[in-house]
Structure formats: structure tokens, C-alpha cells
Amino acid sequence: MLKVMIVDDESLFREALKETIPWSELGYEVCCEAENGLDALEKISEYKPDVALVDINMPMMDGIELAAEIKESGADVRVIIITGYSEFDYARKAIEVGVDNYLLKPIDEAQLINVLDSVKKKISIKVEELRKQLTFYKPLLKEMILNNLLYGARIFDKEELSNLEKSFRIDFDNQPYQVIVVEICEKEEYKWYEEERQLWNFAVSNIVNEIFSDVYNYEICRDIHDRICVIANVKPIDMNWHEDILNICERIRVSVKKYLKFSVIIGISDIHKGFRFISQSYNEALYALKNSIVVGEDRVIRYENIKVSDELAIDVYTVEQRRQLLMAARMNKIDEVNEIINSIFNEIRLLNASSDFIVVKCIEIASTCFEFLAETNIKIKCVFGENFNLLKEIQEKKTLDQLESWIKEIFEKSINFRISKSDVQFSKVVADAKRYIDENYNKFDLKIDEIAKNVYVGYGHLCALFKKETGKTINTYITETRINKAKQLLDEGYSNISAVSTMVGYADANYFGKCFKKIYGITPGRYIDEIQSK
Q1: pLDDT tens-digit profile of 332-349?
Q2: CATH architecture of 2-126
Q3: Residue 164: predicted pLDDT
Q4: Among 299, 304, 279, which Cα is nearest to 179's?
Q5: Cα Rg, the chain, nearest whole Å
Q6: CA distance linking residue 97 with residue 66, whole number of Å
Q7: In the predicted model, what is the mean pLDDT of the chain?
């Protein structure tokens, strides 16, 4: 039955309409009455009528205003205007606000019945269209709901969850389930177009559906990265035949390899029960999937089998390795850089480390490369582009070999870029060398080798850079630093030349005197006499 509301300020007219029209025969029922437009608006939200018979001439809010309010609110109500006015202007306004028909008082019963029948047909056509649309969009709606559950993007209340359960083939609350994530491995030598990628995703989905449908109740969707996600009840459909989820996933992997000629990686979560754990299960399956960096592609990986330990405390990529890598990069020795990176990744392979550990170490190594660029005042975006994202770059790599190659590439690119900008001042290296000299000038055995080691460059490279930037040799700078400090001590009242020479790093007072005279044109003794005579 369609619900109809009668809106008229004359109660006798409302009663007459209720009695004279065979509502139920026409497929209608009068759900409510209203005596003006304001009253009608309140009752529309309460009774939700399908059709409103509305008089134009009413107090407080007339029929045209009511029709306009209904249209603006978006309420799905068909409006039929009934009035004693026959002026064209009213009819025109009624059409403008979207009324379905326009009838004059006194009501012609047959005409009203025809209008009601016409409106009913329009509503039936619309309902059928909506039903078709719902049938078409239902899979998309279900996929959207499943994505919300996987990502934990929306919290559903109890009533919503109860309604959702009726739509799914699986029982989240009463039966244990696991989440399985399937990712296609594109071939390195050939990148698919988007249409090809969608086609192969569809093909893999068909294999997944075919294999799962015989064994478990499940739901399938794709996440925002186009990975195929399955939520499956662990309890088999046929209790007499149990096949483990791992075996199911192995069958999928083998079938894809056999029939589609490419590989997939499959991650499997732990077993959970309840809607609230779906997002956790999805993240577990993803974590397992990402561990393919260690074990390689074309694998099925269970979350429960991933090694969890205090790996981050393991001494891989040490301070010494960092120093060696930085020194090799500063000296433009790409082959030496690659050898050091090889040794680091070989250590990681021996550990059989988790993906999280590998990501951390790759960030540390890449950061050394960025430090090398910063020393030369070169910005990362100048070398790698505005949209460079370190973590994203690392996470996109599928294997340890790919990560190793990528790390080598960023070092090589950085070194070559620096060479192309040879006019850049190496201020950080030189500044670090100056700082080290300023802090250690009083050592008798201060050597350039020692300084170079502490600023992570080679002996010859440091000498060349220092001379290029300062215009003087490192030995000259050390001498000037020591003599300037000695003069400062003499100015402060120190008069024992032998003691002052020792304090500024000279074991031989005579040699100190010669250096002092070379810079200031006077011996230390004469300088003391001049100070004391003032």
C-alpha cells in the first residue's frame, strides 16, 4: 500500500475525501492529515507519505510554499495540488515547484482516481528502477563496506552490524575467520597498462573464487591498492573434508603460476573472531605479505610464522660501515660504495631478518646518502625530484635484491650529481675539520690522517678540499691556530715561553719561537717585553 497524506484547512473536505475515494482498491491508505503547510511538514518526517493531496489556499503556509519546501528538503513525496482557484498563475507556480498534478474543486472523483492511478504507476516505475540500480550497485556497496571493515575506517553500531551479517556469506561473530591478501607480482621487464592490470586482477579473482567456493564461506573484495582480499570462515562447508587455509592458498599460487604465467604473493593472518578484529586481521596479512622482501616472490606467508625478535638491536650497519660509506662517497668511489653496500646486505641476508628490520636499515643507509648531499648544500629534491618519498620508495620494492640495487642507484645518482656541480663549496667537511683542529690543537701528535678519519674523508681528498675552500693548507691552519692561541695566552699574562709552547701543542720551544716570529714578526720573548713595558 502507498501512503497518502491529505493537507487542507477544511476538516469537512478532508473527511469527505477519506470517505468517497476507494483508497484500498487503488492501492493506497490515508496515513495522516494536516490542516496547514507547517503541520504537514512535521507529519511528513513522522509518517513518510508517498503522496500528498494539498490545498493551495491555507493559513500559515500555503500549498505552493509547502510543495517548494518538500522539493527543497529532498523528501520523496508526490504532490497533487487541489484548489478552488483556476487562475493560470497558480498552475504555473505549481509546475515550477514540481507538483505531479493540478486539480480544481469541486473534486471530480473519477479524475482524482485517474490521477492517483497515474501517480501509482510512476512510483512503481521508479521503485523498479531503484531495484535494478540496487542489483547493479550491490556488489560495489558490499565492496565498499568490506573496505571500511578492513581499514577500520568506520565503526558500525550493533544494529548496523546485525543488518550487515544478513548481507554476508560469512559469520564474523560466531565463527573464526582469517584474512588473506593476494598481490600480483608484475614482471620487471614489462610493466602492464592499467587495462591489463585490471584484466589480470579479474583473472586472479576468478581463480580465488573458484578454489574457495568449494571449501569455505568467504567474502572477496579489493583494497585501495588493488590487492585481492578474502575474509574466510575457518570452518569448512563440508565438515567431513577439511583443507587448511594454507593449502587453499598454495593451490591459488600454483594455479596462477600455471595458467596465467606470473607470480603472486599471498599473506595469511592469524585466526580471529568478531567484527572488531577484521582490521587487525587485514594488517596481519599485509605484514606477512611485506615479508616477501626477505623470502622472495611467489610465496604464501603466514603471519604466525614470521620471526619476531629484538632484531633492531643487532649490530648491522655499524658506525664504522657508515664512516667507510661516507668516505667512499666523498671521494667519488662508486665501486667502493657498492662493495660496502654489498657487505651490509649480505649480513642482512644471513640474519633472515623481518621486513620491519630491513626497512629500518634501508632508511639508515639512505639517510647517509642524504647526509652526503647535505654536506655539499645539495637538496634531496634537486637530485630525486619534488615528489620523492623515502618510505614509499622502500615499501614499493618487493625483494632484498631490489632494495640493494635501489640503494646503490641513489648513491650513484647523488655522487654523479655532485660531480656535475663541482663548483659547490664543501663547507661542512672543511668546517668539521676546522672544528676538530680548534678542539685538538694542543696535541703534540695531531696529524692530518687523524683529522681526515674523524671527518670521514681520505687524506688527499681533505687536503685538496681544505686548500680549495680556505686558500691555505691544513698545516698552515694548524700552525696559525696554535700561534694565535699562544699570543692569547701571552696577552693574558703567561710569561714562561716553554710552558706556553707546550700548552699549544709544541714539544720544542725553539721551533715554537720560530713559528711565532714567522707570523707576528717578533720572537715570543720580545713580545713579552713589549707587553710588560706598557
Answers
A1: 889 999 999 999 998 888
A2: 3-Layer(aba) Sandwich (3.40)
A3: 66
A4: 279
A5: 41
A6: 9
A7: 83
